[in-house]
Amino acid sequence: MENDPTFPSVERTLSVMLTFACSAECRDCGTISSPRNRHNLAIADVLRGLDEAARLQFHNVVFTGGEATLRWGELLIAIRHATALGLPTRLVTNAHWAKSLDDADARLGVLLEAGLKEINFSTGDEHVRFVPLDHVINAAVATVRQGLTAYIMVELRSEPLVTRKSILSHRLVEQLPLSLQALIKPSESPWMPLDPGRVASYPEGIAATKENLSNCLGCDSVLQTYVMQADGRIGACCGLGMRMIKELNVGRVEGSNFLEGAIRDAGDDFLKIWLRYKGPEKILAWAAKHDPEIKWEGMYGHRCQACIRLYRDARVRRVIARSGLEMMPEVIQSAWLQEQYIPSKLSGKAVP
Ligand code: SF4
Ligand code: SF4
């Protein structure tokens, strides 16, 4: 399994962080971005990464950051290049550029002309300290008017001001025809502290406990998304823990075939495979059975915070080092079920 270059048999995504600079400076920003962060990827490296992703038959490319639109010219070059290679592109942005509906229309028109296929916005109580919600609404309205779906990721915390509901009931959204309103899709995702020891407050039932552990699935980002980061490192997932967990960095944007090397190195690591098929909450719960001093219940509403904990906590690491191999048969069985058995059953083909 580990030496199989096609493992796991997923459609891979290349995520490109053109810059760590951002127009905002949210507390607990998962990518540690800010207006002062000056890390930038060279456009020549980005284009080489796109060429390699096309050769390795990656499924799509996501431009994220930082705020990718701060490198507007390079972003357009990269979207055009990916499009010419047949790679569909998505942009994740805080919409700081959509100061009016006209601004939003104009920017979006250029992005679509370059070949952009999908756009996602981020907002929430922390974001709106820097980017007013009206900018996100302008961008979302322009997006749906131009025929795309506007996906909006909203911070989920207890008693938030910005919510899915406040977006859908915004005056500009309500003025749209119902068919376009239906294309505005906000979804709420827990906002996590970067410190694995800090416990955030979430609505009831969000944080992992023994009672809801069976709902915690494997992490479908690790070994599926490879991230060219603005500081030249390559991440093996697109999660919020990626910049904080050195083990999730599996190469550098250097030389030739750097993506191929990163995929090989990441797939050789049992802990990443375990994360992929079981998820960090179940690993923490398993570790706590071996060492009851490990407390985890009710602490993690966002799985990447649980992931930072399992990589950083010496007690958890000790249990993994001593006893982790006992989980290998179960993890391999889950991998087989998810990679081969279930897809074969669904497609009606013989199970390998
Ligand atoms: S907008 Fe996004 S990238 Fe920028 S600081 Fe906030 S969370 Fe970080
Ligand atoms: S849970 Fe861990 S491996 Fe998965 S996306 Fe989050 S940080 Fe990455």
Q: Can you give the helix content as a percent range?
A: 25-40%
Q: How would a crystallographer describe the biggest sheet?
A: 9 strands, mixed
List the total number of helices: 13
Distance between the termini: 14 Å
Which secondary-structure class do the elements indicate? alpha/beta
Mean pLDDT: 93
List the ligand species: iron/sulfur cluster
| Biggest sheet: strand arrangement | 6-5-4-3-2-1-7-8-9
Strand content: 5-15%
Short recap of the structure:
By secondary structure, this protein is α/β, with parallel strands linked by helices.
Tags for this entry?
alpha/beta; 9 strands; nine-stranded mixed β-sheet; binds iron/sulfur cluster; 352 residues; 13% strand
Describe this structure in words.
There is one protein chain. The two termini are 14 Å apart. 39% of the residues lie in helices and 13% in strands. A 9-stranded mixed beta sheet has the order 6-5-4-3-2-1-7-8-9. With 352 residues, the chain is an alpha/beta fold. It has 13 helices and 9 strands. α3 links the parallel β3 and β4 (118-123). It has helices spanning 43-55, 72-84, 101-114, 133-145, 164-168, 171-174, 178-181, 258-267, 270-278, 280-290, 303-312, 314-323, 328-347; strands at 13-17, 60-64, 89-93, 118-123, 150-156, 184-190, 225-228, 233-235, 249-252. α3 packs across α4 (133-145) and α9 packs across α13. The model has no long low-confidence stretch (mean pLDDT 93). Bound molecules: iron/sulfur cluster (SF4) (2 copies).
